[in-house]
Amino acid sequence: MLITELKEKEAILSLADGKKVFIINCHGCREVYFPLEEAEALQKEMESAGHVTGSITTDYICNPENMKLRLEKNMAKIEAADAVLVFSCGVGVQTISEYLEDKPVYAACDTYPQPGFQGVTPLEYDCDQCGECYLNITGGICPITACSKSLVNGQCGGSKNGKCEVDSEMECGWERIYRRLAQIGRLDLLKCPTQVRNFATDQETAE
Ligand code: SF4
Ligand code: SF4
């Protein structure tokens, strides 16, 4: 099971600062807790401020076929937005980011683990529920699961021909992140302050 928790309100509002956003809510599967009331209150505030071009509220946004149809129906409103703001677990955000590859896609939530049944993700991307989601500075590609060393400050320097030095079958996650940031015109994010990972939020390392 896992829990999604809203990021700090200021952090979410700063993503929409002076921009238009399209909002996607995933009310999740039964394994995911979603902060419904807080998310609705914040979204109403953003709508009143004229920042929102439209929204989708659904479940299982990690199902690409399901989402593809919904995104296509709303494409005019998505195109009118500067970015897409996703209220979901990390897998949901990565699913949207993969589909809307030319649009900045931001995570409004952090994802934490909770003991109990964990569904299987039938996708190539994954969320390790690290409790401190980095997707907003990595172009929607999770550095924890896409990099063998879970590096959060860039490439280790060991990749060869785009492949990871730890696993030669795997694409270097940080090369993928670099390409994606270049595609959405956000290479500036690589200059953001050094990330100091808060391991207290990571259940695996805190144990
Ligand atoms: S950075 Fe990765 S592991 Fe951490 S919450 Fe985001 S998607 Fe999940
Ligand atoms: S080669 Fe790339 S994916 Fe592999 S450990 Fe280094 S930065 Fe991470």
Give the key terms.
4-stranded parallel sheet, 8 helices, 207 residues, binds iron/sulfur cluster
Task: Explain this structure.
The protein is an alpha/beta fold. It has one domain. The strands form 2 sheets. It has a 4-stranded parallel beta sheet with strand order 4-2-5-6, with helices on both faces. It has a 3-stranded mixed beta sheet with strand order 3-1-7, with no helix packed on it. Helix 5 links the parallel strand 5 and strand 6. The longest helix has 13 residues. It starts with a strand and ends with a helix. Bound molecules: iron/sulfur cluster (2 copies).
Strand order of the largest sheet: 4-2-5-6
The major pleated sheet works out as: 4 strands, parallel
Structural class: alpha/beta
Which whole number gives the mean pLDDT?
A: 89
